[in-house]
Design brief:
CATH topology of the largest domain: TIM Barrel
Distance between the termini: 70 Å
Helix content: 40-55%
Strand order of the largest sheet: 3-4-5-6-7-8-9-10
Strand content: 5-15%
Structural class: alpha/beta
Number of helices: 17
CATH architecture of the largest domain: Alpha-Beta Barrel
Bound molecules: flavin mononucleotide
Shape: globular
Number of domains: 2
Number of strands: 10
């Protein structure tokens, strides 16, 4: 029956409190830590981000120091049935990602049999860890019984996680025996087939990412976290201490996260509300979490990783931002081709343009233009005057980035280039 409580909130708190205090007083974000059989080089992780966390977004986070990065959520059903786009694009891992630390693929699903198969497939392909989404509040996911819906069905959630653990073990064993070639699409599409990175026969670690509960005030996620570790053999819990009902709004309940850290005999990865370096450091110190997982704060802001890990203090210059945006555009073309990249990249511009330190009106107009231009050639032309103005150190005032939505190449704004 659902609802069997393995450990009440805060159970085992006293003996573990000292451990946490010792840990939190000594642990630093740039220190390595153990995730099951994996050694993660530091404690700052890129969170799973649906529709965003592909190989190049993860690679970007790694270039700036992230110790681990988790993919966007991927349907276990789509993996099980070898959906081409899922296998070729969503499971694509660039070998360079591995240099900076482990890569995890996040799966979602509600069917243990399907989850086992999907985990085996992903593990066979040589991913370093698998995360199971038990926190997604989006109706499209929840209505299938997956994501946050599993919080209301803890027995099923435990079965799904256990199936993933078993599937991952099977996949790791197959990979260790060299039966990984021919796995549909993973690492394909030009990124190169990934190798099996340090995967032992014991299987790669499975983590679960949970909300505190479905509705405000509930702590079903806290209870489920204990069961997932005790009964399913999950290696760590990603904890987002906001209820699913509030989606991403409101203040995360770090006190509940602290209680989870104190009572759970496994690492807790904290996510939620860490928009800047100071917030992340404070949340890490206050909760004693093993690691922090950055989401919205890292969108278009890979510098946040270097702030936390290398002590970077300087705000990225306009040139830095333009370089990073150009890098992103080129990688998107590599991933999707010019035409699809044009549309896909529209969601990225609003993260970068505000960091260009432009006059408000100019920034707004540039933003609008970037959303409507029909090709990436137009995008590059729109950005060129911004780049020129950077190198010439000129002043921005009253400039309108010229563009034409009629298909004519956009002309660099003379005002911007002035
Ligand atoms: C655009 C967007 C997409 C997200 N996609 C996923 C996802 O695929 N899987 C998941 O577990 N969480 C997902 N999340 C939740 C984040 O991983 C993170 O836990 C949450 O945003 C809280 O962190 P923040 O307050 O720093 O943004 C998403 C959040 C956002 C904003």
């Amino acid at each position: 029956m659902d609802g069997q409580r393995a450990n009440p909130p805060g159970a085992g708190r006293r003996p573990l409190k000292l451990k946490r205090q010792l840990m939190s007083s000594t642990a630093r974000l740039d220190e390595s830590w153990s995730l099951g059989s994996l050694r993660v080089p530091n404690r700052v992780i890129l969170a799973p981000l649906a529709g965003i966390g592909n190989w190049f977004v993860r690679l970007q986070a790694k270039r700036f120091g992230a110790g681990m990065a988790v993919s966007e959520m991927v349907s276990s059903h789509a993996v099980h049935y070898r959906n081409e786009k899922t296998c070729n694009e969503m499971l694509r891992i660039d070998p360079r990602e591995r240099a900076g630390g482990p890569v995890a693929i996040q799966l979602f699903g509600e069917d243990p049999h399907i989850m086992r198969s999907a985990a085996a497939h992903v593990a066979t392909a040589g991913v370093d860890a698998i995360d199971i989404n038990m926190g997604c509040p989006v109706p499209k996911v929840r209505n299938t019984g997956a994501g946050a819906a599993l919080l209301d069905h803890p027995d099923l959630a435990v079965q799904v996680a256990r199936a993933a653990v078993e599937g991952a073990r099977e996949g790791s064993e197959r990979a260790a025996r060299g039966i990984g070639a021919g796995v549909t699409g993973v690492g394909g599409g030009g990124a190169g087939v990934i190798g099996v990175g340090g995967v032992g026969v014991g299987g790669i670690p499975i983590t679960c990412k949970l909300r505190s509960g479905l509705r405000p005030g509930e702590d079903s996620g806290f209870e489920l976290a204990h069961r997932l570790v005790a009964e399913a053999g999950v290696a760590a819990i990603g904890f987002h201490p906001r209820s699913a009902a509030v989606h991403h709004k409101g203040v995360p309940d770090y006190q509940l996260a602290t209680r989870l850290v104190e009572s759970l005999p496994a690492p807790v990865i904290l996510t939620g509300g860490m928009d800047d370096a100071r917030g992340a450091r404070e949340a890490f110190a206050a909760t004693g979490a093993a690691a922090v997982m950055l989401a919205r704060g890292a969108l278009g802001n890979p510098w946040l990783f270097s702030e936390l890990l290398d002590g970077r203090e300087a705000r990225p210059s306009r040139q830095d931002v333009l370089d990073e945006l150009s890098w992103t555009i080129e990688r998107a073309v590599e991933h999707l081709g010019e035409q699809r990249a044009t549309r896909y990249l529209r969601k990225f511009y609003p993260w970068y343009v505000p960091r260009l330190q432009l006059d408000g009106t100019i920034a707004r107009e540039l933003q609008e233009s970037l959303q409507s231009v029909p090709t990436l050639a137009h995008v590059r032309e729109l950005l060129e005057p911004v780049r020129l103005s950077t190198s010439e150190r000129t002043r921005f005032s009253g400039a309108k980035p010229a563009h034409s939505s009629s298909g004519e190449p956009a002309r660099p704004s003379s005002a911007l280039a002035r």
